[in-house]
Design a protein that fits this description.
The structure is a homotetramer. Chain A is α+β, with helices and mostly antiparallel strands. Helix content of chain A is 26%, strand content 23%. The interface between B and D is medium-sized, with 28 and 28 residues.
């Protein structure tokens, strides 16, 4: 249930890790929107596995076939359905997992929820593979935002506890954000790449995995997007971010650090710069009262270590109802953080499109 | 827009800080549910201002009048509308704020969004006062959950950076959670109360404010609640939590700390205890793959310091379009954290009701 | 459940016939919209009981108190809650009805659904009284539409089988529609008033009731509003129209008569009139493919006779589980059709606002 | 926009008449539901073109490929996506229609709405072809209902004004409904088939088309399904029925005829039959107050004549902005009514599933 997200730019996601295909129906792409298949392929490649030593060796081309809503390179206004074939599925890897619940995975929760009828192959609909359609939807969304002068970008804020620098939230630039997109391992402090990669490789060699944090930003967002209460920008972004497997925390602006500040420190002073109102700092990450205030929008999402590890773990066998041990074989990412960067950008792009459309709906019949 | 939350246990919130009344329509209270007005009053009092030195001196009785959906002490199945009169509204306090945007508040974002037509008195619909109807709805929700053996509780995890102990997520008990509800300043380590209060008082005397963190838990939740992707438990709780003013971060289980762990540390090992499957640790906060796994559900929400402070701040006057300074007068909380404890409990209760109803809808026509 | 209607101009309705109050929360009124309390009162009076011999003698002033979302005569952009006190509720009239299910009413269906906990006084939430908040919401909606050059009006198309003339769907004018609003018994052929009133009076004297049909139109609606499939104009209007108690059929354009025509008769030929495309006929009632085509929008709704009648009826007593007879006492409308005219106008106005906002949301990020 | 229908049994439809494929994502199929591909194929064949002289000669196998949510013949609980390839698309037929707006079709309304970017081939997303995924979803829904003892069936109530008999609404049987499903031209009075077919053939030979009415019923529905106001059974069914192209009117029970009855005639008397409450008549079509009352559910939908006709029509050319004439070539149904019978059954099945799930969600946390 709840395969659909959004009120205006509305996604309906479908598919499983090891089924014939997976995809997303996007309802609300404005008619006439140019669909740039090259840009889509570029973002899909950023997420695709098998391209970097931190990732699984399993290769998937992840080519998106658009089967509706497209004519002569432009969106028709009808629901746009993008489909991705699953080409590299060795179900054999997962045979024992029908019975043995993988710790840290959805296996046991899903076994109870679906009475044992869920698709256990590769985690079924719980697979990180479902983020592929999300990235496709995000690539449509970011094109719409780009036409409005909005740029989105993200970097690895930490891996295995090793930190990158942080965005300067008051003055991160579109150029910085754009630049990060061309890297498979985007960092603000390139010197941190080597120790991070070492930590991943070390975990991999030990049959283990590591997590990390992704920091994401948007610049060029005008003030006034979002709503008080249930339509807050934070509500919409977080609801979508937490649908991405392995995300366990999200913070906006200074996040939890705000809880240790005084009001006089946390409040961002404002002043006119010509006709524009700007804040002199951006502790609130571009959002006050749930609404954008014109400053760069900044959030961080914490990603737990990949639960699929080769190391032996204690678990249960729901068939025999016995306590057992489990070593997960197969090709798994020792660290999904680099591939998740574009996923978080997609979350932000999709949420912003939906919120901007909401704002428009609320204005159209208003007094001019 | 988006005054409505939930798909089954559905809230529609209305009102402003200084209007005649505020309230909430709850659609989906099962017919026949006993409505315990005393329990409601008890939870409303936990949030009400003027009861503790950390709070504003402004007193509001916050009595809820139920104007629909109730007959002979039981819910009728029709929408239940609870209304709270605003009795103590000195609008004069806020007169200058029509023009001068309060830093850290929604003022400027709302001014742009609503073209200057928003209600600026006390923050209008952005006011923390809107959490009063949320607590009312939460008190209905927690009664429904209690009948299912679920207990919810929370404590102050930190104020001004001064930490309380944390819940032991693998074995927090219903008794602990219940016990916390009777305190206006709920802590696991009572010794932390004095330093926390000192930090609040110090800030108050300096015309400043402090923030904090609230940790919230539910025990007795059965496995299988929630859905993959857009209906994840984390998605639903976070969307609601971020609609509460001043919340800027949320984390489930170990939260961001998970990003620094190895998979072998973060994965919670499972074993049978009799017929029941339990986890030996609970780093995932009772949620795996977006679905409850039967372990205690644990999250923390970070609350920024109250933005209304007496200290002089730099800001803009949108009438004169000049840079100005502002000292906010009136009665404001130097720290809203103690009053927000019951608000976070309410968030959890409401989200769980909605998710449990969703689960039921998904089962009813299934094979037995 | 489902007290909320609409995706953008969103109503949440609450209250019962004999509770303390009833009302509606309207989410999505654009900030700055002037709220004309006189116009509201005028439309409320058109629906109010006790004003015409066809109606119940029970008087209700039906004054709307706006308790949120309003400041200085303008909408603030926050949810607007309108409340109507129930002042004239003689519950005694309905005492026996707890046990004896009124034929043609919701009583038995509701008894089963709500396990006997529903509010039986005056039909509780099933009462036609709930159309009062709908008319209030409609009066807000029609003001928004009026500012866009759209006029809405309706007339009694038949009572007790006695027909009025029909709108000429290809050329009904704003003047005609406006003129109808000033009458308590709006007809295109005034000569039909006397026989209609006689039929109502005859039924009343016999302790019986009659039904009728209402024809409703909107002019000035631009082409392009609505969507294929689930967002069709007919889908949105009909969903709302059937929430009005006693409506049992709805038809657009020529309605069922279209099923007897040839395609060559039913298709409305088009031509340019200057720059504008017009249809030479309007069999499709201004809607083709679920989307407005610029012609007047026309629909008819059939209203069954009021089920509350004094004549003795066979029914069941759910307390004693016996077959019994029932004569309904109290003050009931022998014919609700005249009062329902403004209700159907409100349905059309609300649906159009929602659809126009949807259209705007779909365009905002599109290529210009 | 609004490609999604339902709150619990939720459809998201996608595709166009002449795109590579079309389909539907069904969210909410209970895990473990057996998926009977033969039954699906049977219902798909009832709708498929090219099987009867009343239909277009264009053949489409309309085989559904289920690409997600299915494992080992059972639903997994994840979104179930069914896809149908478009195999027989001669776009050449429609070339001139980019410019020349077909009367009675969505063409002009869509041209305005989508700024000329919509897919004009075969009507794009407005095509009756989109009812194929609806029938697929309906076949899943009716299997779920069948397991609850509910049977759905429909017949041709009229074609070109030539009437069939009507269901006896108080005592239509499951056997009758099931029997109708095996006919390509289902009638209660088989003698009407010949004159109906003659009327269709006559229209076809003249390059014209005819419409008709479909009557649909469900038996075995328990009382208590549906809600007052916006969740009325009539609201949900009508919203879905009007999303089917060419439907222009819907009526429940006696429909408009109720408007000519007295209350004493229209009210269905009730009595106990053993433990069961039954109505002695069923003028209300099994629904009172928007909620099922346990009697057979009956509605009729009027279908306008196919707008695609060979006869010359007056219309506009939006490219040259001139008045022109148009003769639509290609293979079109002279009458879509026989193929639409299973579509209306599907509408009823889908709506009932959604409503029954809603009812379950509303009960689960209630007092037992």
């Amino acid at each position: 249930m709840r395969a659909t997200f959004g009120e205006h730019f509305r996604l309906t996601i479908w598919g499983e890790s090891h089924g014939p295909a997976l995809g997303v129906v996007i309802d609300g792409v404005p008619a006439g929107t140019p669909i740039d298949e090259e840009a889509i392929a570029m973002h899909m490649a950023r997420r695709a596995p098998g391209q970097d030593p931190t990732s699984t060796a399993r290769k998937e081309p992840d080519r998106v076939q658009i089967v509706s809503g497209l004519l002569d390179g432009r969106a028709t206004g009808a629901p746009l359905c993008g489909m991705i074939a699953n080409t590299n599925t060795r179900s054999g890897d997962y045979a024992q997992l029908r019975a043995r619940m993988r710790p840290g995975h959805a296996d046991y929760a899903a076994f109870v929820k679906y009475g044992g009828c869920n698709d256990p192959r590769g985690g079924g609909p719980f697979s990180g593979r479902l983020t592929a359609p999300l990235v496709f939807a995000g690539s449509i969304a970011r094109a719409l935002l780009s036409a409005q002068g909005i740029t989105i970008g993200a970097h690895i804020a930490s891996i295995a506890g090793i930190p990158d620098a942080r965005f300067d939230p008051a003055c991160v630039s579109a150029e910085t954000l754009q630049g990060l997109q061309s890297s498979r391992f985007p960092l603000l402090s390139p010197g941190q790449e080597a120790p991070m990669r070492r930590a991943v490789e070390e975990a991999r060699l030990q049959g283990d995995s590591v997590g990390g944090v992704i920091e994401c930003a948007a610049v060029g967002v005008r003030p006034g997007i979002g709503s008080p209460f249930f339509g807050s920008v934070e509500s919409v972004i977080s609801a979508l971010a937490f649908s991405v497997p392995a995300v366990k925390a999200i913070e906006f602006g200074d996040g939890p650090a705000l809880s240790g500040l005084r009001g006089s420190q946390a409040n961002d002073p404002m002043r006119y710069e010509g006709d524009r109102v700007v804040c002199l700092s951006n502790h609130n990450g571009g959002i006050t009262g749930g609404i954008t205030n014109g400053m760069p929008l900044v959030f961080r999402a914490a990603v737990k270590p990949t639960p699929s590890i080769a190391l032996e773990q204690q678990t249960v066998d729901v068939t025999t109802r016995e306590n057992v041990t489990l070593s997960i074989r197969g090709r798994h990412d020792p660290c999904i953080v680099p591939r998740a960067v574009v996923v978080m950008e997609s979350v932000l792009a999709i949420a912003l499109c939906d919120l901007m459309m909401d704002d428009a709906a609320g204005r159209v019949l208003g007094p001019s």
